[in-house]
Design goal:
- By secondary structure, the protein is mostly helical.
- It folds into two domains: 102 residues, no CATH class; 36 residues.
- Helix content is 73%, strand content 0%.
- It is built from five helices and no strands.
- Helix 2 runs antiparallel to helix 4, helix 3 packs antiparallel against helix 4 and helix 4 packs across helix 5.
- The protein is flat.
- The termini are far apart.
- One of its GO terms (cellular component) is membrane.
- It holds the Pfam family SecY.
- Belongs to the SecY/SEC61-alpha family.
């Protein structure tokens, strides 16, 4: 428990330390890629396009389409991952620069969760309003 390794880990992997911040952003970027490739499976997308006689202009159906979708997904995910990393780390950096106590900060991941929940709530409310609006147009037939 009181070994030099554990002391080093506790001291350097804190969010206030540059190594901890770098590791934090690195994990966010890694999990962004992981999540993107879970949500969009390039192999399955290429197969579905081929089955539905769809294609990407200038790209052959099959393996070439899969490689193209993978390349595009890597590029788009890179932009999103950098953005998520920046949003997550900026509150920590500002707290460090302004020398605020850790209790005064709101974490970047907390901010992302709050915004995500707020957006999802707005979508749900909008769909309920649209549903209520269209109920008046539907008449029961006896």
């Amino acid at each position: 428990p009181d070994s030099s390794v554990s002391k080093w880990l506790v001291a350097n992997l804190d969010f206030a330390h540059p190594i901890g911040m770098t590791l934090y952003v690195g994990l966010i970027v890694a999990f962004t890629y992981f999540y993107a490739f879970i949500q969009v499976n390039p192999e399955q997308m290429a197969e579905n396009l081929k089955k539905q006689n769809g294609y990407v202009p200038g790209i052959r159906p099959g393996k070439a389409t899969e490689q193209y979708v993978t390349k595009i997904l890597y590029r788009l995910t890179f932009i999103g991952a950098i953005f998520l990393g920046a949003i997550s780390i900026l509150p920590l950096v500002f707290t460090k620069i302004a020398t605020l106590p850790p209790s005064a900060q709101i974490g970047g991941t907390s901010l992302l969760i709050i915004v995500g929940v707020a957006l999802e709530t707005m979508k749900t409310l909008e769909s309920q309003l649209v549903k209520r609006h269209y109920k008046g147009f539907i008449k029961k037939v006896n």
